[in-house]
Amino acid sequence: MENLKHTSEDISKCPFHGGSTTNETSNNWWPNSLNLDILHQHDTKVNPLGEEFNYHEALKKLDIDTLKEDVKKLMTDSQDWWPADWGHYGGLMIRLAWHSAGSYRLSDGRGGGGTGNQRFAPLNSWPDNASLDKARRLLWPIKKKYGNKLSWADLIILAGTIAYETMGLKTYGFAFGRNDIWQPEKDVYWGAEKEWLAPSDERYTDIENVNTMENPLAAVQMGLIYVNPEGVNGKPNPAKTALHVRETFARMAMNDEETAALTAGGHTVGKAHGNGDASKLGPEPEAAPIENQGLGWSNPNRSGVGRDTVTSGIEGAWTTEPTKWDNGYFDLLFGYEWELTKSPAGAWQWKPINIKEEDKPVDVEDPSIRLDPMMTDADMAMKVDPIYREICEKFKNDHAYFSETFARAWFKLTHRDMGPKARYFGPETPTEDLIWQDPIPVGNSNYDVNLVKEKIANTDLSISEMVSTAWDSARTYRGSDMRGGANGARIRLAPQKDWKGNEPERLQKVLSILEPIATEFNISIADTIVLAGNIGVEKAAKNAGFDITVPFSVGRGDATDEMTDVDSFDVLEPLADGFRNWLKQEYIVSAEEMMLDKTQLLGLTAPEMTVLIGGMRVMGTNYEGSKHGVFTDNIGALTNDFFVNLTDMTYSWKPLENGLYEIRDRKTNAIKWSATSVDLVFGSNSILRSYAEVYAQDDNKEKFVKDFVKTWAKVMNADRFDIK
């Protein structure tokens, strides 16, 4: 048999050794090169189900009742290789779902439980997610049984929800509809730290001022979901911790009452694990040896389960009956005084003073043994902070109100990143419209589109005005949590109508012309705005010699002020728009990188970004009519001139002091055009230049127009889940 043992010399000669992708290697050599990897996330080639697979169609074949019974049985069955605390997996499954959903952040909509991303690095190996690999393996037989009809993302959240039901909580509802991803979201920014649980100071300008946490981050330390349970930087101080809890949960779209309810409700069941030396645990899943088969944090010296489990390092249950939904959390928190102590693993936690024996929870393995409960610093914050204390005392005195508030907050936590209700599936989908779902009424679909287009086309609106307004309305969409977009026409409401990037004066002029047309035909302003943008594109295409119709779908509705959570929409305000060559101000991050981030949120590929930039420039849609990057003498015609002139070597490029560039004729030295770095990166970056060259070719003028129209329609319909 061939000897498979390799020497170091053999490895050094292996052309495939290292495992780095070409782009990763290139960025190591040239770190200032624009990294386009974020636009290659979730490429269809990595999806084993194929492009034709439709999860919502598959869900129609799912036997939901039988599935729920299987998950309920799991809570107390399958105790062989990973025995549950008190014989019930409820606490573990709740933590699985919670930590999956809890990575969501409002600022850019990334994270959350909507994609099953917890299966992949780095989330599967975060310190805060220790032993959740076991929870997913416990669910595998169910996933295997239901196959393509049940995504991992749905199953993980469902398991946590059913766990609460089996413990006595009446949940608010549950919706299926989360599509799985198939590779790590490695380009999501989780922080700049180079080590797990690095001090919080590294992501705050001033640790004493919680508002100075770096955006878009929401957790206080690398590898945590929320806050450090031991206190800020591991130093107990409940009053100080309360401030960080408030900021962290606010960045995850929760108010004070929701935060208090989730904290209390999450700790009403289950326990924390720290009965041992955490330093003795094996490596996390991504670093574990191959024979571990994707499982991490092995305990080589003890059983690693039951009373020997070590995860957070904190040890103990919060309540007397940790497998029962009751008021036990408040009874103990407010019924006793608490003092600092340390767990067997050396973590700071709080213990009750002179607790009655009957108030102690029993041991997870031996019910004849009773042990002290514990509280984390975040729990003590609920008692010390005056706002949280008032809320929790109300919960304590009204268990029904607490249960309802928690159930609603849990539903929000686990559905926040799913987007509009049109994406929800299943018999337990709540009928109530919740403001955080950004509700939009159904619009009129029964009208003559051509008559409306004719009316708009006969106005005095320019191509630039129509296209820019439609773009500004649609560009708010982000595929991370399916918020924003043209549907709802919220561009005419606060706060969007006043955003600097929307050019309020120009916006109001356009709306004053389009709104009467919408009224005349009894259609939504949202449809009218998109139609106007389409007309602008069609006119520009005709000016370039191409007669083409932009695809259009009727039925958008108009949201109202009452349907709009103004504060939560602030995070959608564009700070930059490379497609309209605009920056609100100078940032540490380059304009090109901000363009890539927005492109990814819009769900566009690098070629789609390229063709949109070229078309938007020649149609004259730059912010406030700027001429930067408008490489054409025929503004308003959808030509490929941007690419033709960008790649024309009869010109030279010279940087100016203000971050702009001038483009000169090599022979005459006359200034021909001006540009920003966003414009010139399509000629300097080797990948983007390859796309630019395609569209600059003499035989691709028609392809450019067709590709632009297709991509434009994709953006305009990105939020139309009602027709997908």
Structural notes for this entry:
With 724 residues, the chain is mainly α. It has 24 helices and nine strands. The strands form four sheets. Strands 7-8-9 form a three-stranded antiparallel beta sheet. A two-stranded antiparallel sheet has the order 1-2. Helix 11 packs across helix 12.
Helix content: 25-40%
Structural classification: mainly alpha
How is the main sheet built? 3 strands, antiparallel
Mean pLDDT comes to: 94
Instruction: Give the overall shape.
Output: elongated
Number of strands: 9
The helix count comes to 24
Rg, Cα atoms, Å: 28 Å
Give the gist of this structure.
The chain has 724 residues and is mainly α. 37% of the residues lie in helices and 5% in strands. The model is unreliable at 1-22 (pLDDT under 50).
Task: Draw up the topology in text.
Elements: H1 8-13, H2 22-29, H3 55-59, H4 64-74, H5 90-101, H6 132-146, H7 152-166, H8 238-250, H9 256-266, E1 271-272, E2 316-317, H10 328-335, E3 338-342, E4 348-352, H11 377-384, H12 386-397, H13 399-415, H14 449-457, H15 463-474, H16 504-521, H17 525-543, H18 566-569, E5 576-577, E6 582-583, H19 591-601, H20 606-618, H21 641-646, E7 651-655, E8 661-665, E9 671-675, H22 677-684, H23 686-696, H24 701-716
Antiparallel strand pairs: 1-2, 3-4, 5-6, 7-8, 8-9
Helix pairs in contact: 4-6, 5-7, 8-11, 9-12, 9-13, 11-12, 12-13, 14-17, 15-17, 16-17, 17-24, 20-23, 20-24, 22-23
